[in-house]
Amino acid sequence: MTTFIKRGRAGLVALAASLVLAACGQQETPEQQASGQGDAPPAPKQVMEMARQDLPLDKSYPSKLRSDDEVTLVARVTGFLEQRHFEPGEMVEKGESLYSIEPDLYESVVAQREADLESARAELSRAQRDANRFQQLLSQNSVSRQQVDQAQAELNVARASVSQAEAALANARIDLGYAEVTAPVAGMIGLSEVNLGNLVQPGTTLTTITPLDPLEVRFQLPQNDAFALRRQLSDQPIDAVTAWLDLPAGVEGERLEGHLDFLGSRVNEATSTVQATATFANPDAQVLPGQFVRVHLEGVKRFNVLAVPEIAMTQGLMGPQVYVLDEDNKARARTVQLGEIAGPWQILLDGVEPGERVVVGDPAGLQPGTAIEPQPFAGIEQIAGEGAGKGAGKGAGEGAGNAGQQAAAQEQKQGGEASVEPAAEAEGDAGP
């Protein structure tokens, strides 16, 4: 019995000693942490001085492709459709024959009009001789003045008949030309709307020819973008503004390049937009008219703006913010008003002033009042790459830290279970 009591007292003494040591450790840890924080060196961060600059924008707008030279062919004469000289869907050249509408009928009309013209010319020749003869006889007082006037009138009628016959012949030749329907433009021809053997009349739709190179897009610019672009075009030609289209999935290549070729001169009252057009070379017919696309403009700029790299932005309680250095090189959070994104830059509308120093390095871990060791701004490319690398490293580090914490928690759990078992055994030994 004495042995069991001694063992119980020894266990209680050991437990009390471990609790005292744990309490002492908890009291010392905050002091050590506070001491460590006070001795933390300034964090090296890249810093840039705010200055106004001109930034290019990559703007995109919804639009629809169209072929500006697309033509719908219609019949110009009446007759039966005798021949079709193409296959639907093939490429045709300008001037190529497409349909024949009873050409032999109109050839005979031309021949008749040519004969009418010859007859009129012969009559004119006779009237001219008669008028000359009567004029000579008048000088000899062999004919009256009335007969001379009559001969002159017949001459004038003969001349008019020749002009009329010439006009009729020209009209017959035009109809003969319309009997052979030719392609007014080069492009891809569609389905024939009329089968062979059918009677067509002037205005009957035959088919459509769609040129595929180049193609045009018409789109609407917000008035602010249009005003900025018009300001920019005062110093450069309109085709200096580069435009490009994203190609749909499954199409070879990445994009089609073109240029802006028209900017409207008035604002649409209903939409507050300005119409613009751009033209794109499409030699391989990678896109087709009627297709909805987004057109990108690369030459658009924003002038005299303040901007920081996107990586410098953080989210605070009052909204988007950046860290500005004070006179003691300590970071101070500053809420800002955001504008447009210009590539890797974020345009700021309000919140900072020219001449202020802004932390443009990775803001992870920064707090208001953090001491900063300013480093020169190394350029937007390095900042963007540095941010991506730190983001990846941070993710990997957090993953490893989480795994370590889970392993430690598992070991602690197992150690706790193991410590309970001896206590239970001792309790069982002391029980009797």
Name its key features.
432 residues, alpha+beta, conserved putative lor/sdh protein from methanococcus maripaludis s2 fold, Elongation Factor Tu (Ef-tu), domain 3, OB fold (Dihydrolipoamide Acetyltransferase, E2P), 6-stranded antiparallel β-barrel, 4-stranded antiparallel beta sheet, 24 strands, elongated, disordered C terminus, coiled coil, RND_pump_MFP
What report would you give on this structure?
With 432 residues, this protein is an alpha+beta fold. It has three domains: 89 residues, conserved putative lor/sdh protein from methanococcus maripaludis s2 fold (Beta Barrel); 96 residues, Elongation Factor Tu (Ef-tu), domain 3 (Beta Barrel), CATH 2.40.30.170; 139 residues, OB fold (Dihydrolipoamide Acetyltransferase, E2P). Helices cover 40% and strands 30% of the residues. The chain has five helices and 24 strands. The strands form six sheets. A six-stranded antiparallel β-barrel has the order 3-12-15-14-13-16. Strands 2-17-22-21 form a four-stranded antiparallel sheet. Strands 4-11-9-6 form a four-stranded antiparallel sheet, with no helix packed on it. A hairpin with a 5-residue loop joins strand 19 and strand 20. The longest helix is centred in the last third of the chain and has 51 residues. It starts with a helix and ends with a helix. InterPro entries: MdtA-like_b-barrel (IPR058626), MdtA-like_BSH (IPR058625), MdtA-like_C (IPR058627), MdtA-like_HH (IPR058624), RND_pump_MFP (IPR006143). Keywords: Coiled coil, Signal. This is Efflux RND transporter periplasmic adaptor subunit. Belongs to the membrane fusion protein (MFP) (TC 8.A.1) family.
